[in-house]
Amino acid sequence: MSHTPSTQPMDTVFIEGLKTQAIIGIYDWERENRQPLIFDIDMDLPIAQAAKSDDINDTVDYKQVSDEVIAIVEQSRHELLETLCEEICQHILKNHLAVQMVRLKVSKPQAVAETDTVGLKITRHRVL
Ligand SMILES: Nc1nc2c(c(=O)[nH]1)N=C([C@H](O)[C@@H](O)CO)CN2
């Protein structure tokens, strides 16, 4: 018997250029001074229900997620971007149940003087 899975098209709510300040890094100067981090975040979810209802509760609120990310980053004191990015992705998936996948990019523009910026990109899926 063939079974057709019910798939909804996946859409993306995004946050681009979210500017924060954090204590982050492995060097002494980074443990003593906050430095800028800039986040781009894609959150994949179907938006069909929200498009019908016109209700913010049927989608993910990019303003709410932006505020939550700023709060996490500003209270964090990790050494690695890896640790901070994992924490943020897990927070989004745990607290915003409509989100099926998060793609997160963080830029750390003051980390390596010879570059425009360096950073990390990670992708995390909801585990069923
Ligand atoms: N993969 C990573 N490499 C590096 C990190 C990091 O968080 N992840 N951090 C540093 C230093 O803190 C750097 O940003 C200071 O220049 C080096 N490499």
From TrEMBL:
The keyword Lyase applies. Its EC number is 4.1.2.25. It is an enzyme of class 4 (lyase). The keyword Glycoprotein does not apply. NCBIfam families: folB, folB_dom. Belongs to the DHNA family. This is 7,8-dihydroneopterin aldolase. It comes from Thiomicrorhabdus immobilis. The lineage of its organism: Bacteria, Pseudomonadati, Pseudomonadota, Gammaproteobacteria, Thiotrichales.
